[in-house]
Design goal:
By secondary structure, this protein is an alpha/beta fold. The chain has one domain: Glycerol-3-phosphate (1)-acyltransferase. The chain contains twelve helices and nine strands. The chain starts with a helix and ends in a 12-residue tail after the last helix.
Length: 298
């Protein structure tokens, strides 16, 4: 075994404990047959991922592994693919500067599920490897979660103590600096991204308020499309209190994309514009959910 692969296995010691037993030899065989250059590409990016606020590039090596694993583990029931196709076409044709997906959040696996569900659609639209995901520091605090985050590009943002279980609350100045860096990187480097505006995973599957602070990342003063998405089943694949992955049935419902300018026109002259804008999106995601899981947006 090459030095690169030895380092990879050492780095992710214990990762096989997260996989179903029958998948361990499948993944090992895949990794062992990859060229050293692919592993080196991953290791270089892994070393710097999450080091600073803002953009970190994903890894093709990780995308290939995640595709292999999730294609075996997940069964998808997807509705609204025509809505996704329409939005991707508008983006590809230059009729939108950016596409933002907003979704509910029940599991660390939600972003990987979303990427696995639509990787082929992104590739057909000429957007392979272009998806970015807003992530909090906890995603980068564990080797296996950090590895999984490289399935896509990441945008690391500081979270307040109210929405994240961090040991020490970030000072306001740090949160502001991180938000400014993320907003800057979105405009400079990102064509489409996924955000979970609740800011934390739901413990019971029902929706909580979308955070007003997410508005800044969505409305960047450009021609931006926003697409609501309902993702159900991630809590079965990776339960909130476990580190073991389970085969799961996933239901995804994609709503119609709208331009930010049209949503603002819908809201009108509201003094609490940011929260009104986010609540508007929260209601649209909730409308894609079963009624009993709509939570505050019922």
């Amino acid at each position: 075994m090459s030095e690169e692969k030895e380092l990879l296995y050492k780095l992710l010691e214990g990762w096989e404990d997260a996989l179903p037993d029958d998948l361990v030899p499948v993944v090992r065989n895949f990794v062992d047959n990859q060229p050293d250059s692919a592993v080196s590409e991953f290791l270089k990016k892994y070393e710097v991922a999450g080091e600073d606020w803002g953009y970190s590039e994903g890894s093709e090596f990780v995308r290939n592994i995640m595709k292999l694993v999730l294609d075996i583990m997940l069964k998808f029931d997807i509705k609204g693919t025509e809505n996704l196709d329409n939005a991707l076409n508008l983006l590809a044709e230059g009729k939108a500067d950016r596409l933002v997906f907003v979704a509910n959040h029940v599991s660390y696996s939600d972003a990987n599920i979303f990427a696995a569900a639509f990787d082929t659609d992104f590739e057909k639209a000429g957007l392979a490897g272009k998806l970015a995901v807003i992530a909090g520091p906890k995603v980068f605090s564990h080797p296996v979660r950090k590895f999984a985050s490289m399935h896509f590009n990441s945008l690391l943002i500081a979270q307040s103590q109210t929405v994240a279980s961090v040991p020490v609350a970030y000072p306001i100045r740090v949160i502001a600096r991180a938000a400014a860096k993320v907003a800057e990187d979105i405009k400079a480097k990102v064509k489409m991204f996924l955000v979970f505006p609740e800011g934390k995973r739901s413990r019971d599957g029902s929706m909580d308020h979308f955070l007003a602070g997410v508005y800044r990342m969505i409305d960047t003063g450009e021609n931006v499309l926003v697409q609501p998405v309902s993702i159900l089943g991630g809590e079965k694949m990776l339960p909130i209190s476990q580190g073991k992955l389970h085969p799961s049935n996933i239901r995804i419902n994609v709503g119609k994309a709208e331009y930010v300018s049209d949503i603002l026109g819908e809201i009108g002259d509201d003094q609490g514009l940011k929260q009104a804008f986010m609540d508007n999106l929260g209601k649209k995601v909730a409308s894609l959910h079963p009624e009993e899981l709509r939570g505050v947006y019922k």
